[in-house]
Amino acid sequence: MFIPLHDANPLRHVAFPYVTWGLIGITVAVHAAIWLAAQTTLIPNAETGATVAFGVIPSVVEGIRRMPAIYDLVPPPVTLVSYAFLHADMWHLAGNMVFLWVFGDNVEDAFGHLKFLAFYLVSAAVAGGAHVLLNPTSDLPLIGASGAIAAIVSAYLILHPRVRLWILALGRIPLPIPAWLALGAWILFQFYNVAVHQGDNVAWWAHIGGLAAGAALVLVLRRPGVRLFDSGTDLGAAA
C-alpha cells in the first residue's frame, strides 16, 4: 500500500532505541548469513534448509507430522519465534525492516527496552500461533517478521494516531498524512486480504494475530504515565 519514510515523533523516554536497531541488525545478519552460505558449496540449499528447519510448519507444530531428521534442529515451539528472523528475499526483508525502523523506536520508547523486546517476541509467537490455528494441517513453512510488525503497527496506532507520517504512496509519491489514516488503511487492508485472498502464499492470519497481540499488549506493557491516542501530548512542534 505504501512505504513509511519518517514520522515526526521524537523519543521522550529513551535516549536511543537499542532493541529496535538490535532486532534490525540481527534480522539482516541472519538473512545475509543464509544468503552467503547458499553461495558456497559448504551448505547446499542453505535457504531452503533454514526455512524448513526454523520456519513455522503448522502440521509439525500440531504434531500431525514429524520433521525429517536433517531439519529437526529445534523443538517445534521454538520456531514460533525463529521464523520471524527469516525472510524469503531482500524485498520481503526490506519491507518489514522499514516498518520496524520507522515505528519500532516509538513503541520501544513507550514500553522500555526489555518490555519492547518481550513484546516483539511474544507478538511474533502469537502471530505464528494464529497461522497454525487457522492452517493446522499445512506443510508449508511460514517465515518473516510481518506478524511482529503488525503488532508494532497496532500498538503505534493506539499510542500515536495523530502523529504526522511521511509515506511513499504508490511507490513514488511522498505524502505527509496522519498516522491514523495510513495505519488504519493498512490494517483494513489486512482484513480485506483475509476475506478475499485465502489460499495465496501470504499468511494473512498471522498479520491479524499480530494486530490483536499488539492492541492487547500495549495496554499492559506501556510505561506508567504513557497515555493512549496521543492524549495530553502537544504535537505542535513535532508535526
In short:
The protein has 239 residues and is mainly alpha-helical. Helices cover 55% and strands 8% of the residues.
Task: Describe it.
The chain has 239 residues and is mainly alpha-helical. Helix content is 55%, strand content 8%. The protein is built from nine helices and three strands; from the N terminus they run βαααααααββαα. A three-stranded antiparallel beta sheet has the order 1-2-3.
List the helices and strands and how they pair.
Layout: E1 2-7, H1 18-38, H2 46-54, H3 58-61, H4 79-82, H5 90-111, H6 113-134, H7 146-159, E2 164-169, E3 173-178, H8 179-196, H9 204-221
Antiparallel strand pairs: 1-2, 2-3
Helix pairs in contact: 1-5, 5-6, 5-7, 6-7, 6-9, 7-8, 7-9, 8-9
Structural class: mainly alpha
Strand tally is 3
Query: How is the biggest beta sheet arranged?
Result: 3 strands, antiparallel
Shape: globular
Helix content: 55-70%
The average pLDDT score comes to 91
| Biggest sheet, spatial arrangement of strands | 1-2-3
Rg (C-alpha, Å): 18 Å
Labels describing this entry:
9 helices; globular; mainly alpha; three-stranded antiparallel β-sheet; 239 residues; 3 strands
